[in-house]
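ingest -> validate -> predict -> emit
validate: passed (alphabet ok, no gaps, 137 aa)
predict: started
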Amino acid sequence: MASSTPIHKDPVREFIRAFNDRDLDGFIAVLDPEVELHSMKGLIKGIEGARLWATRTRGGVQQTIELEQLYEEGTEGGGGRAVALITRRWHWDDDQGEFAGEDEMAWTFELRDHRIRSWRPSEDRTEALRLAGFLHR
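emit:
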């Protein structure tokens, strides 16, 4: 039986796009039903928890993610892992969108059936690449 949910050929890039665009439906569509988001505030499990985590209220400081480089292994078949080197840009959510700062980070993903099974941010890009097997010491 075929799934009624479309398969995303590039779930990591779609995750970032949907996050930036505040597209909750698009964001949820790329998540595995048993998704685990390892946020800075703790572990979030499941689709509903992910939806709450990704819901951002207007106002204050907001973030936009810029993908710099993507390392992938085994993703062609719908599984595998990926590490996205990103810049997180902070801006004030007002008419001018004034710049408020930026951070260089790595986001590590595990995939299953063309969906995000796990997401983990890291402030240490080198360590994230090493732990995911993309960098050997």
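The mean pLDDT is 88.
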